[in-house]
Amino acid sequence: MPTWRDNVRKVVPYVPGEQPNKKDVIKLNTNENPYPPAPGVKKALDSFDYETLRKYPDPKCSKLVSAIASYYGLSEDQVFVGVGSDDVLAMSFLTFFNSGKPVLFPDITYSFYDVWADMLRIPYRQVPLNNRFHVDPDDYIGDCGGIVIPNPNAPTGIAEKMDTYEKILDGHPGVVVIIDEAYVDFGAESVLPLIDKYDNLLVVQTFSKSRAMAGSRIGFAMGSPELIKYLSDVKFSFNSYTMDRVTIDLGTAALSDRKYFEEGVNKIIRTREWTKKKLKDLGFEFGDSVSNFIFARHEGVSASDLFEWLKSEGIYVRYFDKPRISDYLRITIGTDEEMEIFIEKVKTYLTMHGIG
User: Fold this and answer.
1) pLDDT, mean of residues 12-25
2) What integer pLDDT is reported at residue 15 of this predicted model?
């Protein structure tokens, strides 16, 4: 006899990195920013009028949209905001990938893409990265229902030049191409200048990484006014009030201090380059990451064993037990002090196993 369970939408959910409750751990597993948001964010939070919470927020998030548009030199009708880039991307899948043809994205990439595709019943095909973990635009030739690629990619940290994406866009004028730039501020070349040339290009960014606001959940998309209108129509058909008043104010404040933002990003880049050198000296191999993490392997070390040992020592990194990457660890860049401790712990582990 049929039951209600026969009509449940069953999916395998995305599994985020661990959020340990223990104190005194070094958390290098979820690509969070190790530094606080801009001082203006604290000021906005301290001066927020809590009595306004009795009213609904602005459904269009006009103040935040205006600030983003001004910061990036766009018109307001080229900007869409959502509750983190995950919300923006999920809405984009729902809005643009409806042809019945497979959506294309890399085989090694953000592991939420296949979850959304499965949940929304969107066919998809995972396109293998080459043996150096780069995107080859020639692999994206042919009929499809859309394309989504992170730049820099996650978890590899590797970025492509703009001409790679121009070649993909030139070959696919009939579908929406999404470039997910969650980590672009750490040294990659943004494709944002292309949105006026390609009306089917959607660029997605976030406040979670470079702006140190993962706890506030602010994501945004930039594209042609037509793309943004379609995306907004779906959002307002799903939930009119997706971002609260506090978040709108804090996000707006975060954009007002460009100097603090640039100094913070440059600090992380310097620490990343220091960590690369130290890991290379210890025999680790990795691509040239331009993100706030390093995706590294060591020929003489089991990644899963090192992952567990580091956790037992109070250091959390990310391990993916998946084909092609099961011998890699993704290591978020923390403060200088955190990375020095991390390197010393890795040295200890290698010495314990007679390596180096």
Assistant:
1) 88
2) 86
Q: Report H helices in 179-302.
A: 225-238, 245-254, 258-281
Peptide bond into 34 cis (omega under 30): no
Closest CA to 221 of 64, 43, 50: 64
Cβ 295 vs Cβ 150: under 8 Å: no
Neighbours of 46 (CB within 10 A): 7
Strand pairing report for 146-150 and 177-180 = parallel
- Determine which helix (DSSP H) or strand (DSSP E) holds 276, and give its type and residue range: helix 258-281
Token duo for residue 185? 């501020």
Q: Each residue of 299-337: pLDDT tens digit?
A: 999 999 999 999 999 999 999 999 999 999 999 999 999
Q: Which residues contact 313 (CB under 8 A, 6 or more apart)?
A: 345
| Ramachandran angles phi, psi of 295, nearest 5° | -110, 100
Rounded Cα distance, 298 and 39, in Å: 40
Paired residues of 104 in beta bridges: 125, 147
pLDDT above 80: residue 349: yes
Asked whether the predicted pLDDT for residue 187 surpasses 80, the reply is yes
Q: Which of 218, 157, 170, 223 is nearest to 193 (CA)?
A: 223
Would the pTM count as exceeding 0.85? yes
